[in-house]
Amino acid sequence: MAETYEVRQALEELAGELAAERITEADIKRLHELTEEMEAAAAERDVRGHLEKNFEFHELIVGLSGNRKLLSVYRQLRTPIHIAGVHFRSANWLARVGQEQREHRAIVRALERRDGEGVVRALASHLKRAKASLVSDVERAANHE
Predict the structure, then answer these.
(1) pTM for the full model?
(2) Among 52, 80, 86, 122, which one has the highest count of C-beta atoms within 10 angstroms of its own C-beta?
(3) 101-144: per-residue pLDDT in tens?
């Protein structure tokens, strides 16, 4: 899982940098909407809904790269990460949502500024934290079996 996440991070950083060059106002609006939908799902303790919107948020950024091969490879990685997120997300995931929301908003702000380097930094920070959380959840679940 950790290795899959590392590859995901590299792909998303490249995608974010490319997206910063191509993003439209409509795309930025959709990213804001997805951020709000994730926050609403978290407020309702809707784990699955939150995960779905989170994946849609990230996949939109990858799609905005305009690189079909990158999107295809990214989608191949999505399935194992999604399954792990659904099955292993710990009961304390809500405690991490505030940080995640700040990270998503930082990503969108960098995209609004068309700041490719800022997008890469924001994505790297977000995905490193997300990887550590998911790997910790998977390890915790494995140790309880």
Answers:
(1) 0.89
(2) 122
(3) 999 999 999 999 999 999 999 999 999 988 888 777 767 766 76
Alpha helices in 45-115 (DSSP H): 47-63, 68-88, 93-112
Q: Which residue has the tokens 């290795």?
A: 3
Question: How does pLDDT run across 23-39, given as a tens digit for each residue?
Answer: 999 999 999 999 999 99
To the nearest 10°, the Cα dihedral for 110, 16, 62, 82? -80
Which DSSP letter does residue 92 get? T
Residue 70, domain extent: 2-143
In terms of Cα–Cα distance, which of 37, 49, 137 is closest to 91?
A: 137
Q: How many domains does the chain have?
A: 1
The owner of tokens 């995608």 is: 15
Structure tokens at 54: 């989170």
Task: Count Cβ atoms within 10 A of the Cβ of residue 62 and give its class: 0-12 exposed, 13-18 middle, 19 or more buried.
Answer: buried
Instruction: Provide the 10 A C-beta neighbour count for residue 142.
Output: 9
**Token duo for residue 66:** 């305009």
- Give the CATH number for residue 41: 1.20.120.530
